[in-house]
Write a structure and sequence with these properties.
mainly alpha, 2 strands, 80% helix
Length: 178
């Protein structure tokens, strides 16, 4: 299962990176059209708002979780023993898993409704909303799988790699107390 989740996380990260590049090109195109030709482009705004921004955030979630890059209260954790840290970590992961599963479920229902009703965002280009909404459950599903792996890792006593920032925070805190 770990290999599958790692592949899904890598694909998700690649989609997030491609979305960043797509947003960079679309915004550059829009700015060039405005300043050179005095013509605006509604395509850049709609594409960025409905497709690229959600893809950047939601497809980047699982990789950030894998690298332990989400916000953590590290300075508080260092005062607890390993058993308490593990329990707190499991509680945080389970809570996150529930939240992302619920968000993913609602996103799936939203995408399904948009698909069945052929919902579009009217404008110069009629953007199909089912594709935009499908980003939500896809990103959340990979995040949920990563959280399941992380929960099992904590239960088995397998320590995930420390992030660079976490190591620096611990060293800085240790230096202050010595």
């Amino acid at each position: 299962m770990r290999k599958i989740v790692n592949v899904l996380t890598s694909v998700s990260l690649a989609l997030s990176a491609i979305s960043i590049m797509g947003m960079m090109f679309t915004i550059t195109y829009d700015a060039a059209m405005r300043y050179i030709f005095k013509a605006t482009s509604t395509i850049a705004y709609s594409l960025s708002e409905y497709y690229l921004m959600p893809a950047i955030v939601l497809f980047g979630l699982s990789y950030t979780q894998k690298m332990r890059g989400h916000t953590r209260v590290v300075f508080v954790l260092r005062f607890f023993n390993e058993k308490v840290k593990s329990v707190l970590e499991i509680v945080a992961y389970v809570f996150s898993l529930i939240v992302f599963a619920l968000i993913g479920r609602q996103g799936f229902l939203l995408a399904q409704r948009a698909y069945l009703n052929h919902e579009i965002m009217p404008g110069l280009i009629n953007w199909p909303m089912d594709i935009a909404y499908a980003i939500i459950p896809l990103g959340c599903a990979v995040m949920v799988l990563q959280l399941v792996l992380d929960i099992f890792d904590v239960l088995r006593g397998r320590k995930p790699p420390e992030t660079v920032l976490e190591e620096l925070d611990v060293r800085d805190a240790d230096a202050k107390y010595q």
